[in-house]
Structure formats: C-alpha cells, structure tokens
C-alpha cells in the first residue's frame, strides 16, 4: 500500500517536471537570445561571422545552449514516457477506466492498454481498504449433484484449501448421492478450520422445476436462484461457485471485494467473455436479454441480507415468468435469469475484474483477462468439453488443474495457527486414542495404523443398481491397490452381479484409475460396480479397513467376501442366489464356503464346470489353494470330500482357517489391527465361529487364484523379523480380546493356537 502511494508521488513529480522544465528552459533560452534588445540567431547557419559583434566566445555559448536544449528535449521525451507508464499503472487510472475495460474488449479500445489496465487491477488502492480479518470465516456455497460433480467439487476444494489462510464454511446444496459421498469425504478428511453444512437439493426441486431448462446441468443448474431462501437467515454474504472452478489465489482476496459494494449493489459478477448474449453466434440465435455481453454466474458474490430486503425471490420469479412467455426455456440455466433481472435493474451489479472468472469456453475472449501467470485468480472450465476446450494457453490451464486434481489431499490438513477452531469430536477421540499409545513400543506403528483415519471417496464412478426384489441378491466384495488393476475386467466378465470394491490409491493414482476405467468398454458398460477410493496414508496396507469400507457400502442382503486376485467360476452369481434360498441364509447364521483353487499359469483355459476343474486338478494344471505353503488355511474345507459331494456339507472351524465365504450383510467387520500380510482373514473367520456361524461348503462352487508378483507386504513379512514379532503380539492380543468378549467358549482359540 505504501509503495503505491509513493508511486503516486512520483507520478505527481513527473507531471510537474514535464510542465515546468520546458517552460524554464525556453525562458532561459529566449532571454539569452537577445542582446541589446535585438534577437540573436541560435543557428550557426544564420550567424554572421563577419559581424563585429560575432566573437569566438559567443559562438561557443550558442553551441552550448543548443546542446543543452537537445538534452532538455531528450529528458522531456523520457519523462513523458515515464508519465504514460505511470498513468497506465495508477489505481486511479484503473478506476476511471474500469467500466471501459469491457467496451475495449468489444473493439473500441487498444488491446495493449486493455491488458495493462487489467494487470493494474490486481493492485490495491492507495486509500486504506478494510482487510479480511485473520480468523474471519469465509462462506462458500456450491450446488452439487451426482457422482461426477462430487469429484469436481473435491478438486475445487483442494485449490481453495491450498491457498487459504482463513477458516472456511462450505454450504453444499447436494442431492442424496453427493451428500453421501461428500459427507464421508469431509468426515474422513478432517481438515482443521473447515465446516461443512448440507442442504437437501431434492427438497428445492419444487422451487425451480417449473422452469424449462435446456442446459446440461438440468434442474440443479437453477438452484443458485433460491440461495437467499435456502441458506441460513443470519448469513449475510456468501461466495457462490460452480463445481468446475479452480482457484489460483487466496479466496480471501475475493471475499474482500464485498467491501467495495456501494449503494444497492448486491451481486458481484464478471462479465461474460463470449458473444453468447450478443446474439450473433449463428443464424436465428436468440439469447435471453442481458446488459451488453451479460454476466457469467460461475462466480457470484451475494449480499444475502440486502437481497432478502429487496425481495429477490419475487424479483427473479416475476422476471422469469415474463421472459419464459417468449423464450419458452432457459439455455444457460440460472445465468439467463440472473441476466434478465440485471437488464431491468443494472444497479444491482458490482462488476468484478475479469480475472476473477477466466472463462475457458468456446469463442471466449478470456485471453484479454491476463498478461502473465500472476494475473490469474480463478479459472472456469465452463465448456461442456471441459479440459478439451480450445484455447491458446489451455495447456497451461490444464496443467494447473491437474496439479490440484492429483495433489495429495492429506497435505491440506494444516492448522490455521492463532485461529480457534470448533471442537471436532472425531478429531478429539483420535488424539486421545493416539496419546494412549506408547511411542517407544517396537510395534507402535502397527498399533497406530488401527486408529489412522483414511480419507475416503465413496462411489468414485457412476453407480446405479437396484437389488433383486426376491431378497436373494449377492454382492462380491474385494479390495485392491494399483498393482491389481488389471484384474477388474476379468472379474466383471466372470461375475455379472453387483460388486463393491475398495481401492487403496494416492490422489494421482486415483486419476490414473479414472482414466483406465473410462477407457475400458467392459468397465464402462457396468453400472453395478461401486468403486470406493481409500487414500494412501502411513506405511502399511490397511487391508481390513478396505474390506470394511467395501462391506459397508453394499445394497444387497448378502455378500461374497472374496479377494481381487480370484476369478469366480462362470455362473457363480446365480448359483449363490439359489444357494441362499436353499440353505435359508436369511434365517440362519451360516457362512457358505466357496472352495478355492489356484494355478501357476498366467494363461489359463478357465474350467467351465466342476468336472473340467477336477480333470485339471488331476493333471496338475490346478491345485488346492496354498496347499504347498499354507495348508492349514483351507484344509478344513475337505477337498477330498468336495470332489464327490453333490449336496452342501458342514465343516468345523480349525486354527488358521481362512476360507472365502458368503454371509449376510450384518456379519461382523474385519479387525483393523491386522494390516499388511498375516492373519487378516483368519481373525475374521475366528470371530464368525465365536458368534456361532455354521460353516457350509458349497458342492458346485469354486474360485481360482490367478498368479501375480508377491505383494510388498508379504515381502516385508518374510524379510523383517520385527514385522513377524509384532504380528505374533497382535495375534495374542486379539485372542485375549476374544476371551474377554466371548467368555469360556473362546478359550478353544488359545488352545488351538498353542497346539498348532
């Protein structure tokens, strides 16, 4: 601020210099040109060398004056140039030409002057402006509906969090899908000084459903019109953002613009940067009425308290009803109605500089909003083409967007020091649990992982499935990381029923997965697969947390607890649904066992029947699962009996038993203390037995494990002695917990472990 005031003083000094130096110089020269009241020529060509008055000294004096005059003229030229530059940068110049910026965009001004004026707009005014207080809460409203929009919101929020220095309060107008996704995401993200409130978008549909809308945003694209009615009555101001926005600066700078509103100004908007509202894009193009180019509603500053007093609700409704009589429908959703209101009431608008909404749509004039990277404030991908839009600098904008898209969201959990934050029960409980751990314990990292809260994004891709009405439906449940991604298409070909998958990925890997899925015809043709991203954090693979996430978000009464590297037999989905009825799974505590086999061949002619599988078993093409390294894991299945069985048969629990089972959705969760490799399934089967589940082997079901490189966790287990010691300690503690919880009946687990 001080530097700008100094700049004004320099500007004033330069102006005075330009005015007075030439005047003084010419007075001096003019006076020196007379001698005895007669004019004396200053040019040597006009001098009279033979005149008695002409002397060598007077010649030198005149030459000296000529040199001085040329120097003064050069100085004046430089000063005029500096004055011109000072004028283009001065805030007063920017204010006086602010309204002209957009008329120059329309071709009535010099484009270089336009860009200079826009760059100047990034400077503050010399007079003291009210700053945003350090701990002042900034309120942001976003309308969000569906799976894709939920992903977009995350990227927008990341860009805001990256730059922010103030507490934030997000007001999310969301449908049921977006609310489920984003509520879980923010709950597990646990960002300090961020509050989230949800408002049911479905309840607002009746407010705007009477307006026909051709825009791809559908009915949700009209809901910004009813924010004065939707948001809390004591909320005075809010920044409203579209989901396809990326911030390149601190949002507090935009919040500070509210202080510049005067009189009846209640809407802060950037002028539309395309020719849409000029009505000349194609023949018979007839847009809604707008003031000049109109305004874009991707970024809006709303003074809610004043809008309510002005009866905004009545104002926009009357305008919409009147215009719809001739326009029949909106083309750009709420933006058309906002512009129609502004056309009738231009005093409502405070025009924001265009760098607050650089619009990357087709035919945009956004290139005139910036001259340098530092000029950018907000980027708006407001074309249906999104990242594929044509723009001279689109590669730079795309890279900026991808930076936030793939940015590790865990790094944004930073505290705002000096700002008191609301008590978060989940955060306080977590801190209490962690404080009770002994950091000197050699197994501290294992114990800590049990309490780690992993950021979770449910339904990362579109999901649409209604369970079968006969209450026999079964969901396949599995978990995976990036190195098992290639199994997805094969599983989808083998299992036609619903699938719930938890994927352990980084932010960057999540985007790789998205591109992989969108490029796969097999995956894109399936809408009954729920992909739930659990973001990486810590040094262990949280296998049981992943299983619990996938189990929790199924919509069927039964689930098949599998692993990602197993292919179910063809037709297993329908076979299990019949078995559910046959064995009365709805009314009994049963765990139906699907026998597991494996192949060491990467290319396998998958057996299409039990008879074909037995033949391959006899030829050595297939084996019972892990018979050569971990026989105890599946031995109780009794494969010898299975070979000839034609009806289901019951087996008893034994130590280290870990079959793959079909159970009701209300079965107990996996124990989170087991991470990485070892005992993660064994502990779960032990708990099922403790709860008196009956293990029943299905005679005509099978699954085959496909070969793959050893996981990082099994490598750690085999090579790290401390890893094995900690796993043994966790097993003993789990068994003790079982004894405390289930009493005398659980003593057999201790005995079985000691005998094994």
From TrEMBL:
Keywords: Glycoprotein, Glycosyltransferase, Golgi apparatus, Membrane, Multifunctional enzyme, Signal-anchor, Transferase, Transmembrane, Transmembrane helix. The chain crosses the membrane at residues 12-31. One of its GO terms (biological process) is protein O-linked glycosylation via mannose. InterPro entries: Glyco_trans_8, Nucleotide-diphossugar_trans, Xyl/GlcA_transferase. Its main location: Golgi. SUPFAM superfamilies: Nucleotide-diphospho-sugar transferases (SSF53448). It is a single-pass type II membrane protein. GO terms for molecular function: glucuronosyltransferase activity; xylosyltransferase activity. Residues 44-58 have a biased composition (Polar residues). Pathway: Protein modification; protein glycosylation. GO terms for cellular component: Golgi membrane. It comes from the Eukaryota. It catalyses: 3-O-[beta-D-GlcA-(1->3)-beta-D-Xyl-(1->4)-Rib-ol-P-Rib-ol-P-3-beta-D-GalNAc-(1->3)-beta-D-GlcNAc-(1->4)-(O-6-P-alpha-D-Man)]-Thr-[protein] + UDP-alpha-D-xylose = 3-O-[alpha-D-Xyl-(1->3)-beta-D-GlcA-(1->4)-beta-D-Xyl-(1->4)-Rib-ol-P-Rib-ol-P-3-beta-D-GalNAc-(1->3)-beta-D-GlcNAc-(1->4)-(O-6-P-alpha-D-Man)]-Thr-[protein] + UDP + H(+); 3-O-{(1->[3)-alpha-D-Xyl-(1->3)-beta-D-GlcA-(1->](n)-4)-beta-D-Xyl-(1->4)-Rib-ol-P-Rib-ol-P-3-beta-D-GalNAc-(1->3)-beta-D-GlcNAc-(1->4)-O-6-P-alpha-D-Man}-L-Thr-[protein] + UDP-alpha-D-glucuronate = 3-O-{beta-D-GlcA-(1->[3)-alpha-D-Xyl-(1->3)-beta-D-GlcA-(1->](n)-4)-beta-D-Xyl-(1->4)-Rib-ol-P-Rib-ol-P-3-beta-D-GalNAc-(1->3)-beta-D-GlcNAc-(1->4)-O-6-P-alpha-D-Man}-L-Thr-[protein] + UDP + H(+); 3-O-{beta-D-GlcA-(1->[3)-alpha-D-Xyl-(1->3)-beta-D-GlcA-(1->](n)-4)-beta-D-Xyl-(1->4)-Rib-ol-P-Rib-ol-P-3-beta-D-GalNAc-(1->3)-beta-D-GlcNAc-(1->4)-O-6-P-alpha-D-Man}-L-Thr-[protein] + UDP-alpha-D-xylose = 3-O-{(1->[3)-alpha-D-Xyl-(1->3)-beta-D-GlcA-(1->](n+1)-4)-beta-D-Xyl-(1->4)-Rib-ol-P-Rib-ol-P-3-beta-D-GalNAc-(1->3)-beta-D-GlcNAc-(1->4)-O-6-P-alpha-D-Man}-L-Thr-[protein] + UDP + H(+). It holds the Pfam family Glyco_transf_8. Residues 42-67, 83-109 are annotated as: Disordered. It is found in: Golgi apparatus membrane. In the N-terminal section; belongs to the glycosyltransferase 8 family. This is LARG1 glucuronyltransferase. It comes from Herpetotheres cachinnans. The lineage of its organism: Eukaryota, Metazoa, Chordata, Craniata, Vertebrata. The gene is Large1.
